[in-house]
C-alpha cells in the first residue's frame, strides 16, 4: 500500500526563523502561481484540440466524409470534451480561492478527475484507430493541413491527445511541491494532505495506464516514420507490443533477415528498433527505410569478445524452424562496452518476454482446439 502523504519525504519542516518562514511563503506563492498558470495553459491546449481538430473532424464525419466516420471519431476522442468542460468550470475556482488554497479546490473537485480513467483506458484504442486512419490519404492530408494552422501552435493532433493522459500525475507533482513548503501548522496543510490522498488513488491507476498510453503513442510514431515495412509488420502497432530500446548500432553482418532488395552497406550505422517480440533495423539517414527484421521467440544471443575486431559485438541468432527453414542472424557492434551491456540486457529481456508470449499463445490455441473438439463431440 502507498505510504501516507503526511509521512512522505517531501513533508516540510517547521521554519526555524522569520527569514525561513518568508522563504517558505515565497515558494508556496510560486507553486500556486505555477498551478494556475499550468491549468490555464492546459485548458488552452484542450481548446485547440477541440477547435482545430475535433470539431472539424466531427463535422466531416457527420457529413459522411471519406476522411472520418462517426464510429472512428468516437474512438479517437473518447470523453475529452467532458474533460474540457470540467476544467473550464474548475479554473475560476482555482483563481479565486481564498488565500490561494488551491489544494482545497482540488480536494473538492477530486472525484471529477475519475473521468480521466475512461480517457486513459481508451487511449490505446484511440492510437490504434489513429494508426489505421494513417493509411487513409484523405485523413492524413486533412490532419496535416490542420496542424499547419497558426492556431495549432506547431503541434500535431497526437501531441494534444497525449496531454490528458499526463494531467492527473501533474497535479500530484504540484501538490508534493506545495507540501514541501507548507509546515503542518499552516492552515492549508490539511487541504493539501486530503487532496493528495484523493488524487494519489486516482493517479496510481492512471499511471499504469499512462505507461501503456505512452508506449502506444511511441508505436504509432515509429510506424509513421519507418518506410518499406514488410507485409507482416504493416500494422506495427499491436496491443501486446512494447518498444524496449532503439538506437544506432553498426551492422557487421546479417543472414536471411532482409526485407528489401537494396544493397546493405555493412560496417555502417543502422537504426535498431527492439520490441518485446521482434527487432528490426532501418537506414539511419533522413528517411528510415526498413531493411530487415527477426522475430524474437526462440532466439539466442551471443557476445563475441574473442578479438579486438569483435569488441562490443552482439550476435542474435534465430535457428530454423517449421515456419522459416533457414537460420537467421544479425551481428551488431555497439559504440562502447557500456552500451553493449545495456543492449545485451535489453535483448535478453526481450527474448524472455517473446518466449513467454509464445507459450501463452500456444496454451490459448490448445484450449481453443480442445473446445472445438469437445463441441464437435457434443
Overall description:
- With 378 residues, the chain is an alpha+beta fold.
- It folds into two domains: 5-227, Dbl Homology Domain, Chain A; 236-377, Pleckstrin-homology domain (PH domain)/Phosphotyrosine-binding domain (PTB) (PH-domain like).
- Helix content is 55%, strand content 14%.
- It has ten helices and eight strands.
- The chain has helices at 18-62, 70-77, 80-96, 102-109, 115-133, 137-147, 157-161, 163-180, 189-225, 337-377; strands at residues 226-227, 243-255, 268-275, 278-282, 288-295, 300-304, 313-318, 328-333.
- Strands 1-5-4-3-2-8-7-6 form an eight-stranded mixed beta sheet.
- A hairpin with an 8-residue loop joins strand 6 (300-304) and strand 7 (313-318).
- Helix 1 (18-62) runs antiparallel to helix 3 (80-96), helix 2 packs across helix 5 and helix 3 (80-96) packs antiparallel against helix 4.
- The longest helix is centred in the first third of the chain and has 45 residues, at 18-62.
- It is globular.
- Residues 1-9 have low confidence and may be disordered.
Radius of gyration: 26 Å
Terminal residue distance: 48 Å
CATH-defined architecture of the largest domain: Up-down Bundle
* Order of adjacent strands in the largest pleated sheet: 1-5-4-3-2-8-7-6
For this structure, what is the CATH homologous superfamily of the largest domain? Dbl homology (DH) domain
Amino acid at each position: 500500500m502507498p505510504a501516507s502523504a503526511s509521512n512522505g519525504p517531501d513533508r516540510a519542516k517547521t521554519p526555524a526563523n522569520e527569514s525561513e518562514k518568508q522563504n517558505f511563503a515565497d515558494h508556496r506563492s510560486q507553486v500556486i502561481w505555477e498551478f494556475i498558470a499550468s491549468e490555464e495553459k492546459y485548458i488552452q491546449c484542450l481548446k485547440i484540440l477541440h477547435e482545430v481538430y475535433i470539431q472539424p473532424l466531427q463535422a466531416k464525419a457527420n457529413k459522411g466524409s471519406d476522411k472520418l466516420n462517426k464510429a472512428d471519431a468516437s474512438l479517437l476522442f473518447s470523453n475529452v470534451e467532458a474533460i474540457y468542460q470540467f476544467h473550464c468550470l474548475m479554473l475560476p475556482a482555482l483563481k479565486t480561492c481564498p488565500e490561494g488554497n488551491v489544494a482545497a479546490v482540488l480536494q473538492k473537485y477530486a472525484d471529477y478527475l475519475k473521468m480521466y480513467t475512461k480517457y486513459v483506458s481508451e487511449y490505446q484504442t484511440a492510437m490504434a484507430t489513429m494508426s489505421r486512419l494513417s493509411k487513409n490519404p484523405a485523413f492524413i492530408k486533412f490532419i496535416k493541413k490542420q496542424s499547419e494552422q497558426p492556431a495549432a501552435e506547431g503541434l500535431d493532433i497526437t501531441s494534444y491527445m497525449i496531454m490528458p493522459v499526463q494531467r492527473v500525475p501533474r497535479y500530484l507533482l504540484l501538490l508534493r511541491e506545495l507540501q514541501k513548503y507548507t509546515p503542518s501548522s499552516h492552515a492549508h496543510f490539511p487541504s493539501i494532505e486530503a487532496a493528495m490522498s484523493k488524487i494519489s488513488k486516482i493517479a496510481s491507476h492512471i499511471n499504469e495506464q499512462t505507461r501503456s498510453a505512452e508506449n502506444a503513442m511511441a508505436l504509432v510514431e515509429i510506424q509513421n516514420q519507418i518506410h518499406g515495412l514488410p507485409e507482416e509488420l504493416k500494422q506495427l502497432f499491436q496491443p501486446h507490443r512494447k518498444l524496449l530500446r532503439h538506437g544506432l548500432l553498426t551492422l557487421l553482418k546479417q543472414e536471411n533477415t532482409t526485407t528489401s532488395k537494396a544493397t546493405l552497406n555493412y560496417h555502417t550505422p543502422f537504426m535498431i528498433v527492439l520490441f518485446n517480440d521482434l527487432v528490426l533495423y532501418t537506414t539511419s539517414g533522413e528517411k528510415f527505410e526498413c531493411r530487415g527484421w527477426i522475430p524474437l521467440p526462440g532466439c539466442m544471443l551471443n557476445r563475441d569478445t574473442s578479438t579486438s575486431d569483435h569488441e562490443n559485438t552482439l550476435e542474435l541468432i534465430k535457428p530454423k524452424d517449421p515456419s522459416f527453414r533457414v537460420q537467421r542472424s544479425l551481428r551488431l557492434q555497439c559504440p562502447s562496452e557500456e552500451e553493449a551491456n545495456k543492449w545485451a540486457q535489453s535483448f535478453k529481456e526481450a527474448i524472455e518476454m517473446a518466449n513467454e508470449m509464445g507459450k501463452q499463445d500456444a496454451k490459448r490455441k490448445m484450449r481453443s482446439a480442445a473446445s472445438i473438439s469437445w463441441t464437435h463431440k457434443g
